[in-house]
Every structure is written in C-alpha cells, then in structure tokens.
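[audit] Reproducing an earlier prediction to check determinism. Same input, same settings, fresh worker. If the tokens differ from the archived copy the diff job will pick it up downstream; this log only records the rerun itself.
[audit] input (159 residues):
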Amino acid sequence: MSKAPAPTSAPTLQTLAAGLGLTIRRVSQLKTLGMDCSSLASAQEWRKRKSASGEISVDELRKARFHLIEEQRRKIEIENSVRRREFVPAGQAEEFGAAVGFVMKSMLLRMANDLPPTLEGLTAVTIGVKLREASDKILATFADELRRFATVTQNPDQK
C-alpha cells in the first residue's frame, strides 16, 4: 500500500518576500489584501492579476511613495527657510507690497495737491528745495514701512 504524498506546507513570509522581491511587511500587507500565500507561484499569479486589472503596481507604489517623501522634504526645507527668515511667504510679501503701495500713493497724491499753492511765486531754487523736502518725506515714510515690515516678519504676533 502506497502512502499519499504529504501535503506541502505554505511558504513562510520570509520565503515569499525573498521570492517576490518585497519586504516581509509588504508581503503581510498583501496577504491581508487577499494575496494567495499557499505558494510562491500563486502569490506571483495574484500580483500579476492585480496589476493586469488596472490596480496600482508595486513599482508605481514605490514611485508614489518616493514622490511623497520628496514633497515632504521640500515642505520641511521651505518651513525651515521661513524660520531662518531666508524666505517670506507670498501672502506676507503681497500684504507688504499693498501697504507700501497705499502709503506711497497717498503721499504722492497729497504732495500733488499740497505743493502747487506753496510753490507759486517761488524761485526755481526754492521750488527744487521744496520738492526735495517732499520727496525726502515720502522716502522716509517708505523706509519706516520697510522697518515695520521687517519687525512684523521677525515677530509675526506684533502686527
């Protein structure tokens, strides 16, 4: 009487991982997702079917994971640059530009309204002095705005 062949045992996760070129953890994840782990051949077939059905391939997952890690690295670099004050967020720069533009516009309009009556009848030299004084005042206001912006960017809570 001949004996029936002994059933072959399922390969270990380590064996499957080595045969599939994956980590043990990934094999365990795929097993949870329904991968047939009764043999290396059945596991390979399951992965081929999943890949052929349009589901994401292992290579695509690796690429996506690498891309995500790279994006996270870039985000951290930018955050660190902001902390070191090497970079100003666009919103802050736009806010500053709008504030400076408003101040400059109002100062120039005021100068255009205020100067003509005060310049009437003056000599060219005196007109030049008055224009220089008005321009210096505008530039001093601009410098004050720059200092204020630098203070705000150094201490954001001090707006």
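[audit] rerun output stored. Observation attached for the diff report: The chain has three domains: 10-55, 56-87, 88-158.
[audit] end
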